[in-house]
Amino acid sequence: MFVAGNFIAAIATILDYILTIANWLIIIRALISWVNPDPFNPIVQLLHKTTDPILAPFRRIIPMYNAGLDLSPIFALIFIWFLKLFLIRTLFGLAMRMA
Description:
Layout: H1 2-33, H2 42-61, H3 72-98
Helix pairs in contact: 1-2, 1-3, 2-3
């Protein structure tokens, strides 16, 4: 059973890294949006391509206010933190019980 526990722990670790990277990409995108970046910049395009799939469901649920304030990054970060607290800890707990 320890092999399955190690496998689940490895999956939890990789998911934790992926969620941490997504967290930072969303924060960087939000900070860059304050300075009106060049949309043709490759770094800005990469940020948009990687974070748009994460932010799109929140943009459908939460409308943008008339002032141009996009709250979807805040809710996406809260969701990522929830996943890190619930899913990752649950997977690590499951892996510990299987070891």
